[in-house]
């Protein structure tokens, strides 16, 4: 795409990043919708969410956009506000699912807000570390490790 064509759609690189952020958030919502509709267990919802996020972290272009967003977070107010807004929306959905799991005692006694923060930070961190390439960061090992972590916080499993 030529520079002129780019500026016909976006005034700045940040405008492009914001459009990509909105598109990414909408795409994730579309992926989570069937999980939310079919999953009765809060723990299973969180597991499936984690699998979706890990799969998304294999998309090099998506990882690059996420890295660019985080890089602009501290220097561009609009990017910071929109990324924070998207994260807060995701946090609310996840916290609700964790509370859903906590009500029938599916999880060990862990504050829902704390577990939400840990899982979202883990998701972003895994995505950014995935940018390092598959050599030092094999996704299959991460998936297995996350499953072990979930087994440790579920009731009925030994820690």
Number of strands: 0
* Beta-strand proportion: under 5%
- Unreliable segments (pLDDT under 50, ≥5 consecutive)? none
- Overall mean confidence score, pLDDT: 81
CATH class assignment:
Mainly Alpha
Helix content: over 70%
Would you write up a description of this structure?
The chain is an all-alpha fold and 159 residues long. It starts with a helix and ends in a 6-residue tail after the last helix. Helix 3 packs parallel to helix 6, helix 3 (42-56) runs antiparallel to helix 7 and helix 4 (60-73) packs across helix 5. Helices cover 77% and strands 0% of the residues. The chain has a single domain (12-153), classed as Tetracycline Repressor, domain 2 (Orthogonal Bundle), CATH 1.10.357.10.
Could you write a compact summary of the structure shown?
The chain is an all-alpha fold and 159 residues long.
Secondary structure layout:
Blueprint: H1 3-9, H2 13-38, H3 42-56, H4 60-73, H5 77-102, H6 112-130, H7 139-153
Helix pairs in contact: 2-3, 2-4, 2-5, 3-5, 3-6, 3-7, 4-5, 4-6, 5-6
Question: What labels describe this entry?
Answer:
159 residues; mainly alpha; Tetracycline Repressor, domain 2; 7 helices; globular
């Amino acid at each position: 795409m030529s520079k002129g064509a780019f500026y016909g759609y976006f005034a700045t690189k940040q405008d492009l990043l914001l459009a990509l952020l909105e598109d990414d958030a909408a795409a994730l919502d579309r992926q989570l919708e069937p999980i939310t509709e079919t999953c009765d267990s809060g723990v299973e919802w969180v597991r499936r969410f984690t699998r979706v996020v890990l799969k998304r972290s294999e998309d090099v272009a998506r990882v690059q956009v996420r890295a660019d967003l985080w890089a602009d977070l501290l220097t561009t107010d609009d990017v910071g506000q929109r990324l924070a807004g998207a994260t807060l929306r995701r946090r609310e959905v996840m916290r609700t699912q964790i509370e859903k799991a906590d009500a029938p005692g599916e999880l060990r006694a862990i504050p829902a807000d704390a577990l939400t923060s840990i899982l979202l930070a883990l998701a972003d961190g895994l995505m950014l570390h995935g940018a390092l390439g598959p050599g030092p960061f094999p996704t299959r090992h991460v998936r297995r490790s996350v499953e072990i972590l979930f087994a440790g916080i579920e009731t009925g499993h030994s820690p």
